[in-house]
Write a structure and sequence with these properties.
Elements lengths: L2 E4 L4 E5 L11 E8 L14 E3 L1 H6 L10 E4 L8 E3 L5 E2 L3 E6 L6 H8 L3 H6 L11 H5 L2 E4 L2 H40 L12 E2 L6 E2 L3 E4 L4 E5 L13 E3 L25 H4 L6 E4 L7 E3 L6 E3 L3 E6 L6 H9 L1 H10 L10 H4 L3 E4 L2 H40 L14 H4 L1
Parallel strand pairs: 3-7, 14-17
Antiparallel strand pairs: 1-9, 2-8, 3-4, 5-6, 5-8, 10-11, 12-19, 13-18, 15-16, 15-18
C-alpha cells in the first residue's frame, strides 16, 4: 500500500553553500562542488570545480554522503536533479535529501523526484528570480510504496542508467583515442613514416618537409547563426546552441531543442554533415561537429566554418580546433571581462598545418572509425533513455505493479 508523505520524511534536507570565492584554499580536487550548470541529463554529475580538504572541514555540515539527491530550487533551472556518487558539496541554489535508507530507497526517491520539476516550479515565489525555499520544498506531498517495492522500482530504472553510464564511459575512451591520435601525429609528429621525415623551419616551428602552414581564414568561410528562442516542442528543426556543444566533443541530438524558422530562411542556416560550429560568445572557442544527417539549424552565438579547400577535412579541422594550441589562442584572443567573446575573424585568425594528402586521408579514416563507434553508442543511449522515460511514470505512480515480480535487488540496496 502506498502512503502519502512529505519530502522531509525521506530523510534530512540540506541547503548547499558556496565557499567564499576570495578564499581559494577552500577549492581543490578533493570533493565535487555541484552547481546547477553541472547537472544535465545524467543521474551522476561531473563537476567543473571541487573543494579542498580545508573546504570540506569548513562546510562539513553541508557535505552530502553518496546517494544523496540534489534538487535545484532557485532560478530558471528549478527541477534539475542528480544523485551524488561520493561525498559532495552543492551551492545554495540546491536543496538535497540525505535519504534514510532504512526506510526509503535513494534510487526510488531520485526517480520519483525527477518527475516533480514542473510541480515544484508551480510553487516558486519571487518575481525576478523564482525560488522554492527549504520549508516549502520539505512540505511537498509525495506517495511512496513499501520499501521492498521502492527497491524493485529503483533497481529496474537504475539498470537503464547503469547501461547509459557505461556507454558514456566507452564514449569518453573513444574521444580520448581520437584526440591522442591527433596529438601523436600532429603535435609530437609521430605520424606513420616519421622516422624517415626531414624537418624544416616554419612560422609554427620545425615541421616535416612537404608540409605547409596556411592561415585558417584562407581555408574556411564563416557564418553567424540564426536568432530565435529555443522550444521543447517539435515546432521546427532542431536548434543547436552553445550549451549543446560546450561540455563534450559530440552532439547529443536527442537533447537539442527546436525552433520555428521561416521556410525562406531555413536553407541559409541548415546544418549539413561535416559542418563545424564554434561558440563565439560566453564560452568562445568550444567546438561542435555535425556527424549525421539531421534536420537542424544553428543559433546566433555560434559561427559555422565551411571548408573552401579539400586540403583540410572535417575531422582534421575539428581536432585542430579542440586541441590545446587553438584553445590557448582563443583564451588569449577573446575580449570582454565578464562576458568573453570572439568575432569570426578572431576565431579563424590562426595558422594551421597543411598535410600531404596520404597522411590526411589516413588520419580522417582512423578518426571516422572511432567517431562512428561513438555515435552508435549515443544512439543506443537515446533508445535507453526513451525506454526508461516511458517506464518511469508508470512505475513510480504504481500503475505498473512490481510487488510480485521476481527482481534481484542488489545487496547494497537490500542492506
Amino acid at each position: 500500500m502506498w502512503e502519502t508523505i512529505h519530502i522531509a520524511d525521506f530523510g534530512t534536507v540540506v541547503t548547499g553553500k558556496t565557499p567564499p570565492l576570495h578564499n581559494p584554499e577552500y577549492f581543490g580536487d578533493d570533493y565535487p562542488f555541484i552547481t546547477p550548470t553541472d547537472m544535465g541529463a545524467g543521474r551522476i554529475v561531473h563537476t567543473e570545480r571541487g573543494i579542498s580538504e580545508k573546504g570540506y572541514l569548513k562546510f562539513r555540515r553541508q557535505i552530502l554522503p553518496p546517494r544523496s539527491i540534489c534538487f535545484v530550487c532557485i532560478g530558471a533551472t528549478i527541477g534539475k536533479i542528480c544523485l551524488t556518487a561520493e561525498k559532495s558539496l552543492t551551492n545554495q541554489q540546491i536543496n538535497s535529501i540525505v535519504v534514510d535508507s532504512s526506510r526509503y530507497d535513494p534510487y526510488f526517491v531520485y526517480y520519483l523526484l525527477s518527475t516533480y520539476g514542473e510541480a515544484v516550479k508551480g510553487i516558486a515565489g519571487g518575481a525576478a528570480t523564482p525560488i522554492v525555499n527549504k520549508t516549502s520544498f520539505e512540505n511537498i506531498e509525495v506517495a511512496a510504496p513499501p520499501l521492498l517495492v521502492q527497491r524493485r522500482i529503483g533497481t529496474i530504472l537504475s539498470a537503464y542508467d547503469d547501461l547509459i553510464e557505461n556507454n558514456l564511459r566507452r564514449i569518453k575512451i573513444l574521444e580520448e583515442m581520437a584526440q591522442n591520435l591527433y596529438r601523436e601525429w600532429f603535435v609530437k609528429f609521430r605520424f606513420p613514416g616519421h622516422q624517415h621525415a626531414r624537418f624544416t623551419d616554419s612560422p609554427l616551428g620545425r615541421i616535416p618537409e612537404g608540409w605547409e602552414v596556411k592561415a585558417l581564414g584562407e581555408l574556411v568561410n564563416t557564418q553567424y547563426g540564426y536568432t530565435e528562442s529555443a522550444q521543447e516542442k517539435p515546432i521546427g528543426p532542431k536548434y543547436l546552441r552553445g550549451m549543446d556543444i560546450n561540455k563534450t566533443t559530440y552532439i547529443d541530438w536527442d537533447a537539442v531543442p527546436y525552433c520555428p524558422i521561416p521556410d525562406d530562411q531555413f536553407p541559409k542556416y541548415q546544418l549539413a554533415e561535416g559542418d563545424i560550429v564554434i561558440i563565439r560568445m560566453a564560452d568562445p572557442g568550444k567546438v561542435g561537429i555535425v556527424e549525421k544527417d539531421v534536420n537542424a539549424v544553428f543559433a546566433s552565438y555560434l559561427v559555422r566554418l565551411s571548408r573552401t579547400s579539400d586540403r583540410i577535412r572535417p575531422y582534421y579541422l575539428f581536432h585542430f580546433l579542440i586541441a590545446e594550441r587553438y584553445q590557448g589562442y582563443i583564451t588569449g584572443a577573446s575580449t570582454g571581462t565578464t562576458r568573453k567573446s570572439a568575432s569570426a575573424g578572431v576565431l579563424t585568425g590562426i595558422d594551421i598545418l597543411i598535410l600531404p594528402e596520404s597522411i590526411l586521408a589516413d588520419f580522417e579514416s582512423q578518426v571516422q572509425m572511432f567517431r562512428r563507434l561513438l555515435n552508435n553508442l549515443l544512439d543506443r543511449n537515446t533508445t535507453l533513455r526513451r525506454t526508461r522515460d516511458l517506464l518511469l511514470p508508470r512505475l513510480i505512480s504504481g500503475e505498473v505493479d512490481v510487488s510480485e515480480l521476481d527482481i534481484a535487488v542488489p545487496e547494497e540496496a537490500s542492506a
